[in-house]
Amino acid sequence: MIQTIIPEGVGEPQIRRAFMALNQGLMKLSNWEMWREIDDHSGVALTAGTKAEIYVPYDCVLTQWTELADQVGSVKIDLWVLPYASYPPTNANSICGANEPLINNAQSAQDTTLSGWSPRLSAGDCIIANVDSATTIERVMLHLVAERS
Fold it and tell me: What CATH class has 32-148?
């Protein structure tokens, strides 16, 4: 059993910094993982639009995505990618084809095949997570896994 102990006086900002440091450590491994919380902080369902930006540090190939939501509902997130020099990407730069990450009347979803995607990313690419639509869900964690190439 793994037990997590949070020292007294450690709040959310410190925990977020610890997760960011962990993410930096993970990026040094052969697989690259990153996650972004998508939250309008409004207390209502997410609204459509760009919500998160991610910088890609290495050449890699996306191998899976996972979405974890705060409650049962639906959310569809498109991923737009362009090199840093051409930032920001737009809908025309979607890498998902017609198979965007989607939670449909559930609280979580995952895909390990990425059918129809253009999953190859280059060092220096920028990803924007764009919420295409959402109902009920107020917060979702988007987790991407990639293999360094």
Answer: mainly beta
- Which residues are 39's β-sheet partners? 139
| Residue-level pLDDT at 8 | 53
Summarize pLDDT for 56-111 with one digit per residue, the tens.
998 999 999 999 999 999 999 999 999 999 999 999 999 999 999 999 999 999 99
What is the spatial distance between Cα 120 and Cα 147, in angstroms, rounded to a whole number? Answer: 10
Reading the block at residue 23, the tokens are 């993410």
As a whole number of angstroms, the distance between CA 66 and CA 4 comes to 23
Give the C-alpha distances (Å, rounded to integers) separating 71 from 23, 75, 149: 25, 11, 36
Q: Which residue's structure tokens are 């764009």?
A: 130
Domain ranges of the chain: 32-148
